[in-house]
């Protein structure tokens, strides 16, 4: 469970910042950080076992039928990455606390950050590739939110969109690749797939799967030619760049290549695809980085270059190359995150990160200068820092790797990449910090507070510590992670002096060449600016813009805002599909004996048909339409009563009353007539469509009713078990509160939500705005009735209230055995209360209301839920009911069922929802100038004394 | 009896759809109410018709009709009340906000 909990913790933590931000920015950061720290601690508890070579596993069946299980496992590789994600995450949370300004919504930032963190931890701990894909997509989404965090900046939005498009496309191709891989291996569990190397590499689907998976990895890790999104993602706040685009997300592609290494690596295809891509990326990006004036762009391209380096090492497919790759992942995370944070500090203090406007900051900001220099020298590969160690290992590997028979190619290009790397690293230091102090900075820089430099200083200290003592500081972690990568025990030997090896000469050449390049930077820059280059953003926009325009045209063509046209098209399509289905299939004649027709039901039928036709003919007069609608509803409920459905009849008649009241109240504020505005041809078209639909539905139900059931129904089960299992004889009620209680639970929740939506809409209407001003200036179109709250009505409703409540309780109590129950009782009591509103007005009644309707709804849903949860204590599934018989001396023996508690919940939710809906409309009436009544009844005298107003 | 129920369902459906295709909010709401009657009766009738056989267990009963469709329709009636209430409020809000109760956002469209 603990591994799943580690992955879940950041997601749970994502909920907290939004709440905690009210307690202040520091409290918010502390709470967010402590969630991450807790996850890191739990990870640390597993570390000893993992370092011993054990694998920690957690298995939770989720959808075994699909092969999708929430299985997690932790080995050395997962430990390294999870540690990086959580550890650097903690530093970033600290740094962001001081980096973000007061205008930035910090709660939102931390929520996104934790979401991302959870997704990343999920990726590295997943033992199921489908689960891994879910997390993979989550990182794309959460990084989209983070890159676009400064929504007001167009560059941020465009960068976020580009990142999402590129990594999202890669993710899609990876899904395909993973599915193929799962099919070959016969399982979606990583631990199984990693054992199936021979089967996978022998399969004819190996190459497609490899290419598709690598596409996902390359897009995520910004490998050439997909590298262009990463510099644009630099529009994000610097903490995001430091976290996502140096230490974690861009390494997800590397992680996956390392993870899949045992299954996929070692073939020529792997070597040529991965190593070549890595090599090209390393050299190309390093060259571009040299010519970037924006500090973050420089760092972005250097990141791309270093990711290329690691990709290349993984592509070599040898044990020592894998060790070098893992070691460089650790080193790159330390120095690059420190560099990004330094760049952020410079930007924060000097208000620019343009190298042309910087220089001479050494004296003004000694602390960032020290941190930045240590990290940059490590990136350049200067001994004795940690970057030197892993770069030396990389050069050593490249020196004896032969590419397609050419022994010179790899070493030469690797040296070239290292040379550029030296040049841009030194340029970062020289052009930011060295040189004379200038007097034209946009803002006079000075050292930032401790909170801001603490995180990069910690990382810089790590850079030095690993550099000076690699064996005690890092070798154990490299051993564990590299061992997990290649699937056998590994003992790395990391030291500074290897003798006069080719790698040493390559290193010397790189450092010397880098210094020369830096010296020649000004003329080289002019040459660079003079040569035309493909601009990735323009190409990308050129590709995406026409697609977006096409999609816009298509959707605005289909969705032109004419709702009635959509309805017509939908009706036509459904009718056509129904007709096609009917005529393409066969059917036998109806054999079921018809129910005889009697006179009274036939009269009811006639009334229904006549009223429906009347309704359609006279619907322009809305009051008439409403009255006739009520008649139709009454006939329907009588029909239910006749056709053996007493519960339905009761419900229908009560709902009918409530609906008509509601519509009448609403009609008060709507036009009283519907104008004749459809053309004759349009009415003809609608007539044909609706007649066709009516004929279709009528024929369908007729054919169903005249045939016996094709399969035996489950009704018999319910009839047989209602009494013995549910303890009630009203089978409909037992189904509602017992057999299908979960459905009912859902229904009352939906009803409660509907009432809350109504409340929210009312709030919106009553907010200052056009609707509100229209209400305030509402002209009383009609003369007041002589007495709005007639004495007779008031007295009658007062008398009826207790009677109605008693009836409601009676209906509720008998519901389990006779027609009735919570739904019906709730409606009865609601209508009794509504009568008070109608008789004495909103103000008088609302003043006497003791319970908020919201609370009634909430209580209802909670009580119903509690009744369900109660079953757990008896060791039964949710909502299992129980019943027993009780004998209290003066009464006869009676039954008590736990379903009654559930039904109480239903009762309260229905009552609250109906009352909240109708009270909301009353509030609108009050706003429109309806005087709140303070007396139970009144005689509405004309205001100006005598006569009509 | 079947023919009466079937023709009633058909008539309610036709009237409901015709009103839904109108261009003002109020007839559409009334049309939806009619259509929900039709759908409720349709589902109810799919349990087949029975007269005098309510699904309330007793020793003297001749038999029982299908209780399941009734339970489904019962909740459907209450839910459709909730939905009607929501769209009434939305229509009211839209009318007060925009000053018109037209369904279509484009005046020319759908004519």
TrEMBL record, chain B:
The keyword Cell membrane applies. Its main location: membrane. The chain crosses the membrane at residues 6-21, 28-51, 71-96. It is a multi-pass membrane protein. It comes from the Bacteria. It is found in: Cell membrane. Pfam families: Oxidored_q2. Belongs to the CPA3 antiporters (TC 2.A.63) subunit C family. NCBIfam families: PRK09094.1. This is Multisubunit potassium/proton antiporter PhaC subunit. It comes from Cereibacter johrii. The lineage of its organism: Bacteria, Pseudomonadati, Pseudomonadota, Alphaproteobacteria, Rhodobacterales.
């Amino acid at each position: 469970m603990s591994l799943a909990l580690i992955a879940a913790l950041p997601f749970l933590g994502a909920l907290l910042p939004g709440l905690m931000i009210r307690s202040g920015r520091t409290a918010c950061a502390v709470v967010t950080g402590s969630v991450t720290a807790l996850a890191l601690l739990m990870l640390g508890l597993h570390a000893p076992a993992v370092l011993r070579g054990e694998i920690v596993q957690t298995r939770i069946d989720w959808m075994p039928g699909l092969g999708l299980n929430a299985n997690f496992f932790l080995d050395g590789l997962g430990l390294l990455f999870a540690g990086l994600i959580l550890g650097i995450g903690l530093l970033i949370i600290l740094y962001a606390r001081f980096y973000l300004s007061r205008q930035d919504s910090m709660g939102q930032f931390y929520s996104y950050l934790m979401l991302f963190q959870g997704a990343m931890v999920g990726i590295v701990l997943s033992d199921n590739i489908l689960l891994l894909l879910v997390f993979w997509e989550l990182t794309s989404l959460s990084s989209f939110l983070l890159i676009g965090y400064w929504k007001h900046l167009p560059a941020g939005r465009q960068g976020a969109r580009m990142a999402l498009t590129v990594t999202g496309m890669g993710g899609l191709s990876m899904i395909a690749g993973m599915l193929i891989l799962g099919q070959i291996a016969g399982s979606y569990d990583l631990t199984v797939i990693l054992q199936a190397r021979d089967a996978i590499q022998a399969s004819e689907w190996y190459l497609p799967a490899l290419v598709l998976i690598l596409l996902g990895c390359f897009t995520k890790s910004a490998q050439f030619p997909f590298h262009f999104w990463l510099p644009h993602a630099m529009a994000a706040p610097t903490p995001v760049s430091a976290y996502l685009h140096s230490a974690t997300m861009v390494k997800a592609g590397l992680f996956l290549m390392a993870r899949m290494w045992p299954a996929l690596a070692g073939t020529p295809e792997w070597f040529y695809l991965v190593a070549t891509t890595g090599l090209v990326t390393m050299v190309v990006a390093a060259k571009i980085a040299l010519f970037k004036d924006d500090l973050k762009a420089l760092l972005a391209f250097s990141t791309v270059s270093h990711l290329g380096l690691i990709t290349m090492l993984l592509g070599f497919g040898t044990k020592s190359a894998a060790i070098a790759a893992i070691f460089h992942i650790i080193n790159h995370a330390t120095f690059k995150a420190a560099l990004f944070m330094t760049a952020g500090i410079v930007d924060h203090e000097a208000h620019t990160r343009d190298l042309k406007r910087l220089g001479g900051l050494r004296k003004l900001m000694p602390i960032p200068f020290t941190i930045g220099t240590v990290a940059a020298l490590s990136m350049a590969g200067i001994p004795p820092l940690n970057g030197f160690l892993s770069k030396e290992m990389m050069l050593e590997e490249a020196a004896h790797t032969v590419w397609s028979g050419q022994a010179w190619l790899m070493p030469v290009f690797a040296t070239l990449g290292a040379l550029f790397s030296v040049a841009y690293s030194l340029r970062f230091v020289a052009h930011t910090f060295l040189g004379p102090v200038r007097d034209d900075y946009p803002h006079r820089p000075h050292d930032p507070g401790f909170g801001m430099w603490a995180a990069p200083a910690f990382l810089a200290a790590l850079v030095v510590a690993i550099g000076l003592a690699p064996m005690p500081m890092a070798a154990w972690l490299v051993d564990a992670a590299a061992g997990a990568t290649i699937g056998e025990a590994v003992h790395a030997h990391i030291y500074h002096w290897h003798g006069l090896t080719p790698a040493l000469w390559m290193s010397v050449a790189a450092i010397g060449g880098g210094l020369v390049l830096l010296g020649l930077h000004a003329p080289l820059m002019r040459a660079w600016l003079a040569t035309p280059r493909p601009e990735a953003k323009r190409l990308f926009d050129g590709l995406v813009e026409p697609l977006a325009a096409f999609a816009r045209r298509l959707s605005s063509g289909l969705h032109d805002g004419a709702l009635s046209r959509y309805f017509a098209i939908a009706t036509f399509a459904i009718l056509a599909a129904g007709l096609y289905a009917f005529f393409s299939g066969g059917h036998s004649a109806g054999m079921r004996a018809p129910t005889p027709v009697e006179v009274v039901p036939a009269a009811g039928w006639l009334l229904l048909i006549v009223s429906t036709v009347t309704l359609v003919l006279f619907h322009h007069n809305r009051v008439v339409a409403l009255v006739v609608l009520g008649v139709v509803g009454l006939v329907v409920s009588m029909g239910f009563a006749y056709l053996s459905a007493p519960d339905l009849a009761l419900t229908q008649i009560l709902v009918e009353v409530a609906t008509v009241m509601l519509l009448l109240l609403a009609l008060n504020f709507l036009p009283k007539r519907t104008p004749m505005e459809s053309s004759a041809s349009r009415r003809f078209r609608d007539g044909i469509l609706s007649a066709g639909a009516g004929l279709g539905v009528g024929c369908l139900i007729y054919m169903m009713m005249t045939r016996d059931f094709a399969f035996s129904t489950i009704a018999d089960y319910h009839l047989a078990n209602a009494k013995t299992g549910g303890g009630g004889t009203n089978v409909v009620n037992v189904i509602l509160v017992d057999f299908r209680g979960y459905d009912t639970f859902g229904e009352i929740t939906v009803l409660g939500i509907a009432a809350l939506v109504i409340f929210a809409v009312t709030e919106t209407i009553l907010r200052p705005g056009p609707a509100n001003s229209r209400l305030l200036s509402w002209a009383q179109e009609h003369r007041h009735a002589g007495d709005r709250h007639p004495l007779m009505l008031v007295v009658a409703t007062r008398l009826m209230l207790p009677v109605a409540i008693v009836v409601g309780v009676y209906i509720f109590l008998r519901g389990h055995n006779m027609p009735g129950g919570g739904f019906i009782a709730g409606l009865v009591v609601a209508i009794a209360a509504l009568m008070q509103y109608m008789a004495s007005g909103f103000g008088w009644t609302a003043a006497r209301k003791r319970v908020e309707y919201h609370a009634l709804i909430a209580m209802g849903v909670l009580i119903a839920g509690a009744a369900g949860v109660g079953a757990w204590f008896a060791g039964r599934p949710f909502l299992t009911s129980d019943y027993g018989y009780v004998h209290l001396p003066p009464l006869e023996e009676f039954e008590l069922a736990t379903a009654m508690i559930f039904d109480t919940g239903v009762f309260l939710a229905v009552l609250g929802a109906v009352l909240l809906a109708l009270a909301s409309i009353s509030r609108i009436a009050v706003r429109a100038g309806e005087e709140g009544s303070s007396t139970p009844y009144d005689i509405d005298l004309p205001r100006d004394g005598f006569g009509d107003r | 009896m079947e023919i009466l129920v079937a023709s009633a369902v058909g008539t309610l459906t036709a009237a409901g759809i015709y009103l839904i295709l109108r261009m003002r909010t109020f007839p559409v709401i009334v049309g939806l109410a009619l259509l929900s009657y039709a759908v409720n009766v349709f589902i109810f009738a799919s349990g087949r018709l029975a007269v005098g056989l309510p699904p309330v267990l007793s020793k003297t009963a001749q038999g029982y009709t299908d209780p399941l469709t009734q339970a489904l329709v019962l909740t459907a009636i209450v839910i459709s009340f909730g939905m009607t209430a929501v769209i009434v409020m939305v229509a009211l809000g839209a009318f007060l906000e925009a000053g018109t109760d037209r369904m279509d956002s484009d005046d020319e469209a759908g004519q």
